[in-house]
Amino acid sequence: MTWLDALAVLAAGIGAGTINTVVGSGSLVTFPTLVALGYSPIVANVTNTVGLVPGSISGAVGYRRELAGQLGRLLWLGVAALIGGLCGAILLLTLDDDVFETVVPILIGLGCALVIVQPRLSAWMRRRRGEGHVPAPHGSWLTLLAIGLASVYGGYFGAAQGVIYMAVLGLGIDDALQRLNATKNVLAALVNGVAGVFFCFAADVDWWAAGALAVGATIGGQLGATVGRRLPDWLLRGFIVVVGVVAIVAFLVD
After folding, report:
1. Are 122 and 170 in contact, with CB atoms under 8 Å apart?
2. Which terminus of the chain has fewer Cβ atoms in its 10 Å neighbourhood, N or C?
3. Contact predicate 56/189, CB 8 Å
4. What's the rounded Cα separation, in Å, for the pair 158 and 188?
5. Whole-angstrom distance, CA of residue 119 vs CA of residue 175
6. Which of 181, 204, 45, 27 is closest to 115 using CA atoms?
7. SS3 91
8. What are the residues whose beta carbons fall under 8 Å from the beta carbon of 100, sequence distance 6 or more?
9. Residues 142, 172: contact at Cβ < 8 Å?
10. What is the pLDDT along the chain (254 residues), one digit of tens a residue?
11. Is the dihedral of CA 243, 244, 249, 251 positive or negative?
12. Measured between alpha carbons, how far is 171 from 220 in angstroms, rounded to an integer?
């Protein structure tokens, strides 16, 4: 890796760390950058996952204010995220790439649609449950299952997993959008972390590129936390949808 390559990867890491913290989809910046620099898709994918782990942690720390009182929720959903992330990482090294390339745009599109209709759908669900119903603060078993499935995808590739997470959390948990975004950042950190550890032992990681990504993503995580918490709900929701649409287009064009 040349110094120019390292600078390109560092810049991509900053951008990805920022985007991941605000919504998710930073891999749409870093993965193509690594491929353009000559890395094979598999090496680029595993290196990208390992390199973005510190950025995910940085973003979660940046949102620590919104995480107050969420320990029980994080423990409940975190188990599903860890199991799903590990399963996704294993699938990356065993399944044909065409399988997930087919379903990825569909999953992201569904996530975008759910984010758009989530306020109305949540209001309808509350009316159906009745005025006296108090939703589970940690989400139902269906929420847990959906988070687990989203985490399988996250461990496999992860682009726009934040869009899917926000759709699931918005429907399954009655809480402020910024607090759910903080939850999303912790879950993403868990998925990237368990997948990254697995790849360290089972796959070919380019450590120079991963290191440059790690530095950039850590910086970006703090930038994203600063920007993300200042966005009003409607703007954050709109940004999530825009990122999701861009992700779909990128996959289809590719």
Report:
1. yes
2. C
3. yes
4. 9
5. 11
6. 181
7. helix
8. 91, 153, 156, 157
9. yes
10. 788 999 999 999 998 898 888 877 778 788 888 888 888 888 888 999 999 999 989 999 999 999 999 999 999 999 999 999 999 999 988 887 677 667 767 766 776 776 677 677 666 656 655 555 555 677 889 999 999 999 998 898 777 788 788 888 888 888 888 899 899 999 999 999 999 999 999 999 999 999 999 999 999 999 988 888 787 877 767 766 776 677 677 667 76
11. positive
12. 28
Residue 107 CA to residue 208 CA, distance in Å, equals 32
| Cα(122)–Cα(172) distance, integer angstroms | 8
Q: Which residue has the tokens 């390559």?
A: 5
CA–CA separation, 21 vs 27, rounded Å?
12
Could you state, in order of their start, the residue ranges of all structural domains in the chain?
3-253
Listed in sequence order, the residues at least 6 apart from 135 whose beta carbon sits closer than 8 Å to its beta carbon are: 126, 129, 173, 174
According to DSSP, residue 24 is labeled: S
Q: What whole-number distance in Å separates Cα of residue 44 and Cα of residue 205?
A: 8
- With CA atoms as reference, report the closest residue to 180 among 70, 52, 78: 70
Q: Which two tokens stand for residue 135?
A: 């939703």
AA identity, residue 28: L
Residue partners of 253: CB distance under 8 A and separation at least 6 = none
72 vs 66, 68, 102, 134, CA distance in Å?
14, 11, 35, 17
Do 196 and 57 touch, CB atoms closer than 8 A?
Answer: no
User: What are the phi and psi torsion angles at 84 (to 5°)?
Assistant: -65, -45
CB 89 within 8 A of CB 194: yes
- Tokens 């390199």 belong to which residue? 51
